[in-house]
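User: Can you help me understand a structure? I only have the sequence.
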Amino acid sequence: MNIYSDSSHSTLKYLKDTEVNINHVLLMMGDFNIRDSLWDPSFPFHSSISDDLIMIADSFDLALLSPTNPGSTRFSNTAGKSNSVIDLMFLRSGSIELDHHTILSKSQLSSDHAPLSIDIPICDEVIQSSKLVITPGSDQEKEFIKDVMSSLVSLDTSNIESVESLNQIVNQLGSIIEQMWSKNTKRSRISKHSKQWWSNSCSLALNNYRSSRSRDNWKVFKSTVKEAKQSFFNSKIQEITNKSRGPWELMN
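Assistant: Let's start by predicting it. Here is the structure, written out as tokens:
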């Protein structure tokens, strides 16, 4: 969260007097326009405004930490006025990854303020480009249901006399569904069309349009998509209605 508070401390007053709903703040930084002995050894006084700032930071679970190279952050061009520390950074309390920052005093260029720098580690993330799917209404779905039903017939449920035997049956049921799922799924590339309502008819209509690039086939494709959506959501509404669930289930 980047903050600028003017010499009247308008931003701090706002944050103090207003209930601000901001969650998961990792750091707060900016020009706070407050000189205080807490962060500026060359300034001998303490201000009550500083107490407000510390309180605000604490409400976000942030704490003021000293930079790795303490020094001035604002440089005065006026004779008789000294440099000061008014640019601060508050970091997440107890954080191991975010535990220090640096004052780039040689990178201020034409500004009278020195930039503050911090390295934020970003964990590697694997983004899946494909997934295993069974298209609703497809032959694969019919085969999946058929395979599950035939496997359930051979499942012995006549001797469930304890929690252990019940857990064993449940585990067997889970294994059956997992095996039949793996048997009948196909790998599909994740795209903007990876929607539950997307059907084989949509794919066929899209391919026809891509082959011909005709306006008529484009209209057929749009009509097919509209019908697929309508059919899908109508079936979902009917399913929820039959289960006598609340109306909020329609929004899931």
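Now, to help you interpret it: Strands lie at 2-4, 27-31, 62-64, 87-92, 102-103, 116-117, 130-133, 186-189. The helical segments are 10-17, 48-59, 139-153, 163-184, 200-212, 215-242. Let me know which part you'd like to focus on.
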